[in-house]
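TASK: fixed-backbone design
INPUT:
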């Protein structure tokens, strides 16, 4: 027997119908489940660009989810409102007993949820707000050190995570058995077009990006065949090495349990370094969610407090050159142009570009973090903040601050032929594999031969790496000395 007569399933970062913890709980507990998605005006109105790839991705995913639910006799009601008011309003309108949702971990989302929970509780007919873990395998306090404190370094966290993992943690929720409980709520609920939200189409399909869980499955099926090669291919931006699933993980069009279960199966079958390495990346994701939960101050502050006092020179001109992909360092420029043109940036390039901004251009990591946050399709507060603090040596990293990426040797190693650089920096198309990584070193005769004049067709380097490196080291050293 169902515990509730009617309930709302509030979809957020979990835009899928299969293996969804809160949807499963709602369907198991209520006779009728009304499905809702809120295009939250609080979030959308803060976005600077009206052609935002993320909004189009979400919109496509919501359309796809609506179709799936309709095929099972349900309906996805999508509204464009402030979620803090929309959910209590709909709960009262439909007279539901409970609202189900999956856990969110970002401070703004937690504030929103507490306002919603409060409003539901204070309603004339109080409504329960019930949440489930879904986005991660282990959350909050589930993986702790033996002394009961949170981990601050990845490798011991990963070991403890792997030790804790059982088949139960990655078992899929059999949502499909209960989908007949999905119901159509009273009233007329028109479908919203992208333009109703005040946004424009961005043409993400021309970049090969599409929302929805079927697209996520297509990408994953493709990656599953390549998983065995992940370790040897993942660092080369011109090679199809990674899964490209991050935007789907971000919006929950794919289940983390499904991915971990697949990697785990591949690891168990035979020694599979590719699958083991990919599993590690998925654990990094849990790790940064855990860090954000235990140390919400990382939003805006260095994880390592010693480095909070660094006086970053923050030269606007250098920051602008970095944003535009015009630093004169080809690998950095190719990375930034990939981000600007597609909303994706390869992981190796995120590390190089972030290190370059902080340790070559001496710009505060928070500036770069913000730029990535507005441009990455897969922007995720926990992973982005973790990645930036890692690159800036202010975060959870066992390595000391003197690890500074050399943008030339990184380029020679990871894009040896310059294939990736040529794709995004066509000005350098005529350079050969030797000169493309540091084209300013070409003589004027070589420049003339390749039809390229440095300073005219492509910028001269905006800083000297060797000199900038020493300046960065001095900044970190001074901050350390001041805190001793
Ligand atoms: C400066 C910087 C900023 C970053 N910002 C983000 C961000 O906003 N959102 C985001 O999802 N990832 C971020 N990352 C991590 C990583 O670069 C991306 O997850 C990855 O490039 C996405 O591509 P993929 O899906 O093909 O990854 P794959 O290599 O196929 O990895 C699979 C999944 O594992 C997770 N993952 C992989 N590496 C990491 C990592 N280092 N930290 C946390 N999770 C990881 C992602 O969910 C990814 O989709 C950032 C890294 C750096 C260095």
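OUTPUT:
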């Amino acid at each position: 027997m169902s515990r509730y007569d009617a309930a709302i399933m509030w979809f957020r970062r979990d835009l899928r119908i299969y293996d969804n913890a809160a949807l499963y709980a709602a369907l198991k507990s209520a006779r009728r489940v009304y499905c809702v998605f809120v295009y939250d005006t609080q979030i959308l109105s803060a976005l600077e660009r009206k052609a935002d790839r993320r909004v189009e991705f979400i919109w496509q995913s919501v359309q796809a989810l609506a179709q799936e639910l309709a095929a099972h006799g349900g309906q996805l009601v999508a509204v464009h409102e402030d979620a803090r008011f929309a959910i209590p309003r709909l709960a009262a309108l439909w007279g539901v007993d409970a609202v189900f949702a999956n856990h969110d971990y970002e401070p703004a989302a937690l504030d929103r949820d507490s306002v919603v929970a409060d409003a539901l509780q204070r309603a004339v007919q109080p409504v329960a707000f019930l949440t489930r873990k879904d986005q991660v395998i282990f959350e909050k306090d589930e993986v702790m050190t033996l002394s009961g404190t949170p981990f601050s370094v990845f490798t011991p966290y990963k070991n403890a995570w792997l030790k804790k993992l059982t088949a139960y943690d990655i078992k899929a929720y059999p949502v499909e058995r209960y989908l007949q409980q999905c119901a159509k709520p009273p009233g007329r609920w028109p479908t919203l077009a992208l333009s109703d939200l005040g946004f424009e189409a961005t043409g993400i399909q021309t970049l090969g990006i599409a929302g929805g869980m079927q697209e996520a499955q297509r990408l994953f099926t493709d990656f599953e065949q390549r998983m065995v090669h992940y370790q040897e291919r993942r660092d080369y931006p011109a090679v199809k090495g990674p899964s490209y699933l991050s935007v789907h993980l971000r919006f929950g069009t794919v289940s983390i349990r499904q991915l971990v279960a697949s990697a785990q199966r591949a690891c168990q079958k035979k020694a599979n370094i590719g699958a083991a390495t990919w599993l590690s990346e998925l654990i990094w994701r849990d790790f940064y969610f855990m860090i954000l939960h235990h140390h919400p101050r990382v939003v805006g502050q260095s994880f390592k407090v010693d480095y909070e006092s660094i006086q970053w020179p923050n030269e606007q001109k250098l920051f602008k050159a970095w944003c535009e992909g015009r630093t004169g360092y080809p690998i950095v420029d190719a990375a930034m142009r990939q981000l600007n043109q597609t909303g994706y940036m390869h992981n190796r390039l995120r590390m190089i570009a972030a290190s370059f901004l902080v340790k070559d251009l001496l710009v505060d990591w928070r500036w770069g973090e913000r730029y990535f946050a507005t441009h990455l399709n897969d922007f995720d507060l926990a992973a982005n903040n973790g990645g930036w603090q890692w690159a800036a040596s202010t975060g959870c990293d066992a390595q000391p601050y003197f690890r500074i990426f050399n943008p030339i040797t990184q380029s020679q190693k990871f894009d040896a032929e310059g294939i990736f650089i040529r794709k995004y920096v066509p000005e350098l198309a005529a350079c050969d594999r030797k000169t493309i990584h540091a084209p300013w070193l070409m003589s004027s005769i070589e420049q003339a031969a390749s039809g390229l004049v440095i300073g005219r067709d492509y910028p001269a380097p905006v800083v000297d790496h060797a000199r900038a490196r020493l300046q960065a080291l001095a900044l970190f050293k001074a901050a350390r000395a001041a805190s001793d």
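COMMENT: The chain has a mean pLDDT of 96.
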